[in-house]
Write a structure and sequence with these properties.
By secondary structure, the protein is mainly beta. The chain is built from 1 helix and 5 strands; from the N terminus they run H-E-E-E-E-E. Strands 1, 2, 3, 4 and 5 form a 5-stranded antiparallel β-sheet that branches. It is globular, with a radius of gyration of 10 Å. The protein binds zinc ion (ZN). The site of zinc ion has 7 residues, from loops.
C-alpha cells in the first residue's frame, strides 16, 4: 500500500504546517522538524498529535 504523491503534497504537519515525509518502511508520515510520526490507518493519514509517535 502506498500513498500518492498528489495526496502527500496536500498534507501538512498539524503542528508546524510543514510537509510530511512518507516512510514506506513504517507506513507512516513523519515530520522531521517536530520529530513526530503520524500513522496511516486504512489508507487515511491520521494527523492527530495525540496519535503521533515520537521519532527517535
Ligand atoms: Zn511538524
Amino acid at each position: 500500500m502506498t500513498i500518492s504523491n498528489d495526496l502527500l503534497d496536500k498534507l501538512a504537519c498539524p503542528v508546524c504546517k510543514k510537509k510530511l515525509n512518507y516512510e514506506s518502511d513504517n507506513n507512516r508520515l513523519a515530520c522531521k522538524i517536530c520529530l513526530l510520526a503520524f500513522p496511516i490507518v486504512d489508507e487515511i493519514p491520521v494527523l492527530l498529535v495525540s496519535e503521533a509517535e515520537k521519532i527517535k
